[in-house]
Every structure is written in C-alpha cells, then in structure tokens.
Amino acid sequence: MESLVNLSVEELQSYYLRKPFLKKLYHYYIHQGYYNIISEQLVYIINNSFVLFYTLFLMKCVEWEKIFKIDSPTEFSTIVNMKNMFKLNLNNVVLVIIYFFYLMTKIGYLISSIYNYKYIKHFYNNILEISDLELINYKWEKIINKFYSLYKNEDINVYYINNKITIQDNYFISLIDKDIIDIRHLCPLMEWNIIYCFINPIFINDYKYNRNFIYLNEIFVKKVQGKILAISILNFILMPLLMPFMCLRNLFKYGEKFYNNPSLISSKHWTHYAKWKFRNYNELYHEYHEKIQRSYEIANVYNNQFPIKLISTISELFIFILSSFFIILIFVSIINENVLTNLYIISNKNTLWFIGLFATLIAILKKTLKEQIYYNSDDKLAELKGIINCIDEKKTKDKNHKQYFFNMYQYHTYTFIKDIYYTLITPFELFKLYYKTYDILKFLSEITIDDPKIGHTNIYSTINKNIDDIKNEYSRQTFHNNNPEYLLK
After folding, report:
1. Other C-beta atoms lying within 10 Å of the C-beta of residue 384
2. Same-domain status, 252 and 108
C-alpha cells in the first residue's frame, strides 16, 4: 500500500475511493476490528497446518489393522509408530511441498495484512473517530455518512461504495441469474475456478478494468482460454493428492458439530448455488447473511408441510423400541454404576457403548418427525419471498413449486456428498467451459457499461436506472430496505 504522507486532499480522496481501500474498509467492519482480522488469519494457518500433519499422522503412523483387532487393554504406543511420520512416499512429498508454498502465500498475506490494515485501523480510530469496540454499534450506512461528512465528496455514498465493493460478486450473480454457465451443483472449488478464470481477468490491480476485456480482443480471449486449460490440468493432477486432505478437513470441521447435535445430520440448508441465485446486486455480505438466516425459520415451516409419512411412521416405531431399551439401561446403571462398563451386552460392547449408540440414533430419528401444523403452502412461500425477494415468482406459482424449493433447499449430508462428487469432476466441468469461453466473456463484456456516476460497472447493478430486468428491480428494493436514508438519483 502506497504511503499516504504528503498526498493532497484531492489525491487522498481519490485513494480512499479506490476499490482495494473500500474492500479493506468493509472487511475491517464485518470482522469488527484489526486484531480480529489478524487473529482469524493466524488461526486459519494453524488450523490448516494441524489438519495436514494430523492427516499424515493418521495415514503414516497409526496401525489401523491393530486398532480394528483390539480385544484387550492395549497401550497407545503399541498402535502408533511415530518413526513413520517422515517416511514419505512421492504423493506425501508432493502434498507437503504444495502445502508449503500455500503456507508461504498465507503467511505473506498475513504479514501484508498486519501492515495494510494499520492504515484502515488509523482511518477508523483517528479519522472517523470510531474505535474497534464501537464498530458493533454502527450500521454500515452510518459509517459511510460519517465518511462523507469529513470530505463532502459526492462519490462518498453508500450506493457508489457498495457497488465498488461487490463489483466482482455482481458479475458472478449475473452469470448465475442469466444461466450463462450451466451448473448442476456449485461446489466451492468450481466457484473459485470460475471467479479466477473469468472474473479476475476483467480487472488490473484489483480495481482498474482491463481494456482488452472492454474491447474483447482475441489476445484477451486466448489468454483466458489458456488460464482455463492450465487450471483444469492443475485441478486434475492435484485432485488425488488434495481430495483426502479436503475430505478429512471437512470431516473434522463438521464431525464435532454432528456429534454434539446429531439432529443436524437430518437438517436442511440453502445450497451454495441457491445462495448466489438469491443474492441481489450490490448486496453486502453481512446484509445477505442476515437475510438468509432470517429465511430459515420460514423455509423450515414450508419444508415441514411436505413430510414423507412412511418415514415418520417407521421413525416412530424405531424411536419407541430404542427408547424402551435406553430407559432400562439408564435405570439399571443408576442402581449399579458398574453396569456401565462391566456388563457386556454383546461381545466387546458394554452398556455404555449401547447407551451412546441409542441416544445418537434417537436424536437423529426424532429430527425426521415434524410437528404437523398445517398452513397454506402458497402463503408460506409468499412469506419466504417477502424475505428473499428474488425467489422466482413464476416457479413458486407453478403447481410443482415445491420441487423448485427442494432443489434449492437440501439436506446438509446430501450437500456434503454432492460437494465431494462435484469437486472430483471439477477439472472436467471447467474444461467444458473452455469451449464456451468467448460466449461467456462476450456476455460479461456486453453487460459492462461506463456509468457517468460510478464508472465501468455491470449494467444490472446500476439500480439508479430503470432497466427491464426483474433482478435489478429486486436489488433496488433490497438496497432501499438496507439503506433507507439514501435516495437513489
């Protein structure tokens, strides 16, 4: 980041209105301060380093055959050989080397953040006079108004700044909204690849538009195609190495949550694709996240209007049977605590093991039982649309509207399995887009306009204009709801 010393007022204002500064300003806001940003990045590095070495430990040091055959008290040291930790085969070596370079990148980014966010901290604490502890009490619009009151620059307004912050997201929203990219299931890796290959090349130095993109010359198209080809091959080569690491990381991440709350296994959520489909232009992350969280209550009520009666009936039967065994085991264990560990119901499985198993199964099965309170499903869908206004109205009025809903609202476990599968085929899905590169870039170029107020931007994100686009209209409504004090001109 360039030095701010000796800049004139005009140069200083120009610097403050550049996208990198504005994105850092917002990033600082949603993370509630300097030390939160630094600590989160540090914890992320430690977390991933732990997962890598823990994965190597499980793969190289633990003798799983011995664990599966344990039938008597066994010392931990007899099933673990730490000397194997550094006896790495070619795959392990490549994985460690890849992670080493990734780690160096993250450490470099951390050091850069320590330096760069000091300017943002200074801006908040000394120029806007807002301490880190006070950030939680400020709405984003209020911060921008305070920003404007200092410099009286017309470009310092919540519309201009939100547009600059979300400018890359707006292009991705258009690709999804207009079905330019046909994606059956959007996994995080595919999302990253699309952004990296198609959207990042639009910009130079993170904020200036690439002139080659504006005029869509052949050199630019060839360069993007080369990037897609290279990333597809890289994805394919590294997939066997990275997939076990990614699976274990997600297993560690979600396993504890499912263990403490087994009912989460049968809970549902909006898919990754739905979250992009339902997001409006210029909608900031914290605004959208809050909207999605509010929608879950109504979405669950609507979901419960369509129970599978057979599953509920079978679940009730198993819950009754398991609960009968569970209660007796608990009762006997209270009378004589030795029963917990010394009574073996079947070979090698004592009472404590069965109590844990029954409790887990009962919790999971209870989640499949829905308290049946009957509502008009159309009314509930309309209520959901009141929160997520860009839900497709035509499809919600169709007689098969519940299918549209359930394509977007799926089980966590189902999504987890699909993420694994679609991560595996990402290299091939990305390679398909190689042949559609020109069409995709042409679409992105055609929706890019030079707006007199905010410069080059996505035409659908210019919510101060009357554009014949329903998503644009919904975005205008959402922007007004989130920023009632600002009048679009």
Report:
1. 21
2. no
Plot region of 348 (φ>0 → left; ψ -120 to 50 → alpha; else → beta): left
Q: Which helix (H) or strand (E) holds 145?
A: helix 140-151
Tokens representing 156?
């310092």
Regarding whether 435 and 302 lie in a shared domain, the answer is yes
pLDDT at 53 over 50: yes
Mean pLDDT of 441-450: 93
b/e sequence 21-45, b meaning 16+ C-beta within 10 Å: bbbbbbebbebebbeebeeebeeeb
Q: Is the pLDDT of residue 401 over 90?
A: no
* Domain that residue 389 falls in: 157-307+370-489
Crossing angle of the two packed helices 9-16 and 140-151, in degrees rounded to 10: 160
Q: What is the dihedral sign for C-alpha 57, 58, 59, 60?
A: positive
Q: Is 61 exposed, middle or buried (0-12, 13-18, 19+ CB in 10 A)?
A: middle
Can you read off the two tokens belonging to residue 211? 């002139």
How many domains does the structure of the chain reveal? 2
pTM: 0.82
Q: Contact, 351 vs 345, CB < 8 A?
A: yes
Residue 421 pLDDT more than 50? yes
pLDDT of residue 287: 93
How many H helices and E strands in the chain? 23, 8
pLDDT confidence of residue 427: 93
Query: Is residue 355 assigned to a domain?
Result: no
